[in-house]
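Researcher: I'm preparing a figure for a lab meeting and need a structural model of a single chain. I don't have an experimental structure, so a prediction will have to do for now. The sequence is pasted below. Please return the structure as C-alpha cells so I can convert it later.
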Amino acid sequence: MMRTLVRVSEQLKTLSKEETHNSTIQSPSQADVAVYKAIKSAPESAKYPHAARWYKHIASFEDEFATLSGDASKPYTAYGPDEAEVTETPAKAPAAEEGADEDEVDLFGSDDEEEDAEAVRVREERLAAYREKKAAKPKVAAKSVVTMDVKPWDDETDMAALEAAVRGIEKDGLVWGASKLVPVGFGIKKLQINLVIEDEKISLSDLEEEIQAFEDYVQSTDIAAMQKL
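Model: Understood. Here is the structure written out cell by cell.
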C-alpha cells in the first residue's frame, strides 16, 4: 500500500498543468479516476497531506466518474514515471529534492491562501449539492406479498358474501389479488386470498382484526405465507 501510494504521489506530480488545474479547481479527468482507484483508500493526512486532500476532493465526483473527460481504459501507470523511490518518511523530502522540485507544479499545495479557500469553497458546494441530490431521490416503498386464510363458521356460510366483505376493505397501500376456496373438511371451505401491502402503511394484525369483525361470516384468520418483494 505504502509503495503504491508513494508511486502514485510521484505520478500525480507529473500530471500536465491543465490536468492539475482541472483536478484541484475545476472538474477532474480520467487521469484522476485511474489514480484514485489505484490508491483504493484515503491516504493518511499526517504523512500525505496534499494527497489526502486531493483524494477527498476526487471522492466527491464518484457518481460522475463514467462521464469525466479522458481515456478511461488507461491504467494509472500511464500517468507518470515507471518507478518511484519509497522513503520511510514520504511527507519529508530530502533538501536536495526540495530544491529540484521548486520549479515543478504542486498538485495539492498552494502559497496562495485565497486560492486554497476558493478550492475548499467549491468542493464544499459540490458536496452539499451531491448530498441534496441524493436526499431528493424518491425512496422505494418496501412491499410484501401475503397469502391469508379466512375461515368461515360452517359449511352454510355464504363464501361469496364473505369474500365480498373482505375485498370491500380498501386502504392506501393495500391491493387484493387472486383468491380460491380450499376444502378444510366436513364440507367446509376456507377463503385463501393473496394481497400486496406496503409495509409502512399496512399492519397485518390490524387488517386481520378488521376482517374478523365480520362476525356473521368469519370465524378466524391466519397468515399462510408472506415474503418481501
